[in-house]
Amino acid sequence: MTFLLNLITAAVLYGTPLLYGTSGEILTEKSGNLNLGVEGMMFMGGALGLGAAFYYEKLAGAAVSAPLAVVIAIAASFLAGALAALLFSFLTITLRANQNVTGLALTIFGTGVGQYIGEFMRVREGTYVAVSNTLKGAFNGSPFPVFLQELPVVGRLLFSHSIFTYLGIALAVAMGLYLHRSRSGLYLRAVGESPATADAAGISVTRCKYLATVIGGGISAIGGMVYIMTVVGGVWNHEGLSGVGWLAVALVIFCLWSPYRAIWGSILFGGLLILYLRMPIDLQKWRKVDTLSVSGHKVHAPKGVGALFIAFYAVSTPLSEFESAGWRILGMAFACGMMFPFVLQASLIQSYMPLPLSMGVTRRGFFAGAQAAKVMLAGGIGVCLLLIQLAVKWMFGVDALFTGTMLVGLFAVLLLGASVGEALGFVSLRFGRVGMIVFFVLIVGGYAVIGGIIGYAGAAGALDGMLDAMLRFLSNAWALGGSAIVLAVLLGWLDWLMCRRIPVKG
């Protein structure tokens, strides 16, 4: 019973920031905008919220007011997210920029700004930026009386959480009532579902989109502040918010754009995160490479190849033992990188196809370019891996990992991954909301599966066996090549059928 209570309490703690990020994104998407910059806005909200509370406490001294500090932190984080969302709105609504590209740019921009602010405060103060224990208690304390919190079982489950948990639940309920029980909420949903119809009915489409996106961005940013103040403990951590915004975006799809479902969905996601963090894994079995934080959460597709170069510095074994240590890491990088062509080709189709078609490019021309990109992507990755192994052989004098036959098999696998990713991109455009759900689920699921397999193999010391199995698999070069070509042609035909039926928006 104690374990279950601790798990639920921790799940609520970790899920509360997700609830704010998800609620804000739901409000944004109900207006017809897809803002993928939640991660960046949460970073900015976390940095500015913490900074506002910290400097208020520093200026006020002994006269500091804990409730006022909470209000100041909320206002600062909301303002940061609202300004970032305003920039996103101007680019996507007024200038008609691609929402996916702009959202990803906002993620990069917001993450950089938040980290810069955090590091600037740290350098200026000469130490870690953290609020006092008094303010930590105000941010983490429950608004209910002590006797209710001390009730058996019920007190822990219902009355012991931070004030932000109850505010987040109230916000989600209020947002649900607003969207489904108010006239302005009906107008907002009409704008998101059919802007032309809403405009014909006299509704200001631009104003509704701006307000929903800006307010939604501010709410999401509050989630970043809540994460820093409650989960991290009121201390700035350079990478403390990494991945939280993307979890919020995934949760929007998981709860089917419903604020009510977001309440229990955020708790579920928080519980899964806690179970993952508490999973007993002995990383020491993987000789001095535990500094790479090998796990399904930390090692994933784009970072896989980079792990190879980090490993050159992290592995402190003699060069004579490099073959046993270094090639295992190369195998990990290769296996993780298999996800890269899948994700890149899917994102290419999903993000960029509507733009050239709206500018007069023929569907046949775009489709031909996509096929060329697919082949060049697979070939380019294969060539890069070949150059890496030649460089390693030249520097360390170890035998080549891939033979010529294996490289043919490698190209075939990469081509197949790019082909599946391309098909997924066309599905997301052809089938609307259902296609987008499939798009995100398969990409996120692919990352999780690949990362989980590699992480657990590394922790269990089984990477050598996995690498051997992978090399034996690639040795079947001609069977792999023939299968990849057949499947690529079949998927290409299906892609062309979907490409012909994708609506083009001007």
Q: In angstroms, what separates the terminal alpha carbons? A: 58 Å
Mean pLDDT: 77
Instruction: Label the overall shape.
Output: globular
CATH architecture of the largest domain: Orthogonal Bundle
What number of domains? 2
Give a quick account of the main beta sheet: strands, pairing sense, barrel closure: none
Runs with pLDDT <50, length 5+?
279-337
- Count of DSSP-assigned helices: 22
The structure class reads mainly alpha
How large is the radius of gyration? 25 Å
CATH class division of the largest domain: Mainly Alpha
Give the total of beta strands.
0
Order of helices and strands: HHHHHHHHHHHHHHHHHHHHHH
Fraction in beta strands: under 5%
CATH fold descriptor of the largest domain: ABC transporter involved in vitamin B12 uptake, BtuC
Q: Helix content range of the residues, please?
A: over 70%
Task: Tell me what the structure shows.
- The structure is a single chain.
- Helix content is 77%, strand content 0%.
- It has 506 residues and is mostly helical.
- The chain folds into 2 domains: 2-277, ABC transporter involved in vitamin B12 uptake, BtuC, CATH 1.10.3470; 283-499, no CATH class.
- Mean pLDDT is 77; it is low at 279-337.
Task: Set out the fold topology.
Elements: H1 2-30, H2 38-60, H3 66-94, H4 99-125, H5 133-140, H6 146-149, H7 154-159, H8 163-181, H9 183-193, H10 195-200, H11 205-231, H12 244-254, H13 259-277, H14 301-314, H15 322-337, H16 339-352, H17 354-358, H18 363-396, H19 404-430, H20 432-459, H21 463-474, H22 477-499
Helix pairs in contact: 1-8, 1-11, 1-12, 1-13, 2-3, 2-4, 2-11, 2-12, 3-4, 3-5, 3-11, 8-9, 8-13, 9-11, 12-13, 14-15, 15-21, 16-18, 16-19, 16-20, 18-19, 18-22, 19-20, 19-22
